Automatic annotation (TrEMBL):
PANTHER family: AMIDOHYDROLASE, AMIDOHYDROLASE-RELATED DOMAIN-CONTAINING PROTEIN. It comes from Paenarthrobacter aurescens (Arthrobacter aurescens). GO terms for molecular function: hydrolase activity. Pfam families: Amidohydro_2. Belongs to the metallo-dependent hydrolases superfamily. This is Amidohydrolase-related domain-containing protein. It comes from the Bacteria. Residues 2-204 form the Amidohydrolase-related domain. The lineage of its organism: Bacteria, Bacillati, Actinomycetota, Actinomycetes, Micrococcales. Gene3D superfamilies: Metal-dependent hydrolases (3.20.20.140).
Length: 212
């Protein structure tokens, strides 16, 4: 059970269409992701060419992952979800909330809550090694509770952010903190965050274990 979220040229609809034609020939291709935080264009998601390409992504039944959205792109993600309701928008790393800055957190929270109001959105619990914040369950609990409130377990999924996460802590430590947070949910809700949301969002094929 696996899938690939890859890159296509979103700012060139013709090239994006050609890439989508090629890549969707492979059943494991499930979505697209552009490193918008490394792109100098702060309005990248609002560009007409990008919107046109993302409409094609939606037509193919694929998702778009948006990493490190705050502060430049979280509001754009809200507009994108509203204007292309057929597109599943996956917010990676909870949008990179500025937890150490209360004033900026107000701005993050407003857009984060607005995104959660859109039914075609999913948030990924990942990438939470944040500047100025201890990586512990207690420190991250307000973010986790905000995510559950905004999206619900049925639109929340766990992610490891490997190998980038290893810059903040070993893989095991990164995962243990997230699992500690998820353990506060009911068993069905835990199943959603740990597995079911990802299966549904990315259309992953589940292969039953062989009986021996």
């Amino acid at each position: 059970m696996f899938g690939v979220v890859g890159w296509i040229r979103l700012d060139s609809p013709a090239e994006a269409a050609e890439q989508l034609h090629r890549f969707t020939a492979h059943p494991v291709f499930k979505g697209v992701r552009h490193l918008i935080h490394d792109d100098p264009r702060g309005d990248f998601l609002d560009l007409p060419a990008v919107r046109e390409s993302l409409a094609l992504v939606a037509q193919h039944g694929l998702t778009v992952d948006i990493p490190d959205a705050f502060p430049r792109h979280l509001g754009s993600a809200v507009r994108l979800a509203r204007e292309i309701p057929e597109l599943t928008v996956v917010l990676d790393h909870l949008g990179k909330p500025p937890l150490a800055d209360p004033d900026l957190m107000k701005l993050w929270s407003a857009d984060f809550q607005a995104l959660g109001q859109e039914p075609n959105t999913v948030a990924k619990l990942s990438g939470l090694h944040l500047p100025g914040v201890q990586y512990t369950a207690d420190a991250l609990r307000p973010l986790f509770e905000s995510a559950v409130e905004a999206f619900g377990p049925e639109r929340l999924m766990i992610g490891c952010d490997w190998p980038v996460s290893t810059m903040g802590a070993p893989y095991g430590r990164t995962l243990d903190v997230l699992l500690e947070l998820v353990s506060t949910l009911s068993p069905p809700e835990q199943d959603a965050v740990l597995e079911e949301t990802a299966i549904r969002t990315y259309g992953l094929a589940v292969t039953p274990l062989a009986e021996g």
